[in-house]
Amino acid sequence: MCLAIPARVVSIDSDDMATVALEGIRKPVSTALLDDVTVGDYVLVHVGYALHKLSVEEAERTLQLMAEAGVLAEELEEMAGETAEAGT
Questions:
Q1: Is the distance from CB of 27 to CB of 87 less than 8 angstroms?
Q2: What pLDDT is stored for residue 83 in this prediction?
Q3: N or C: lower Cβ tally within 10 Å for the chain?
Q4: Under a CB-based contact definition with an 8 Å cutoff, are residues 64 and 25 in contact?
Q5: pLDDT at 53
Q6: pLDDT of residue 32
Q7: pLDDT at 55
Q8: Cα(59)–Cα(82) distance, rounded to whole angstroms?
Q9: What is the pLDDT of residue 72?
Q10: What is the DSSP string of 19-48?
Q11: Cα(37)–Cα(11) distance, rounded to whole angstroms?
């Protein structure tokens, strides 16, 4: 479905890149569209870009709503597949 999904920044990498994690899945994303991204921030991720910073509460609520709507598992599966493809 390719919805934007909240994920936590676990490392800041070079060239406007960071690594985010959600449910054990790690993915590199571009942070070029945001200012002042730090480890521990939650960001809204879509097609490899961090689009917006979120509070912890907003991220948790969004993930909860996505789970209740039945789309979180699908998005996590897609995110994991993209990460696996990038590694090959």
A1: no
A2: 63
A3: C
A4: no
A5: 97
A6: 97
A7: 97
A8: 21
A9: 87
A10: EEEETTEEEEEE-TT-SS--TT-EEEEETT
A11: 10
Rg (C-alpha) for the chain, rounded Å, is 12
Contact assessment for residue 45 and residue 26, using Cβ atoms and an 8 Å cutoff: no
List C-alpha distances in Å: 41 to 17, 66, 70, 73, 87: 14, 19, 25, 22, 25
Angle at CA of residue 85, ends 80 and 86, nearest 5° = 100
Smallest Cα–Cα separation from 75: which of 34, 33, 22, 39? Answer: 22
Give the three-class secondary structure for 3. coil
Tell me the pLDDT of the chain (88 aa) as tens digits. 578 999 999 999 988 999 999 989 999 999 999 999 999 999 999 989 999 999 999 999 999 998 899 888 888 888 787 766 666 4
> How far is 55 from 69, CA to CA, in rounded Å?
21
Residues 81 and 46: their CA atoms lie apart, in Å, by 14
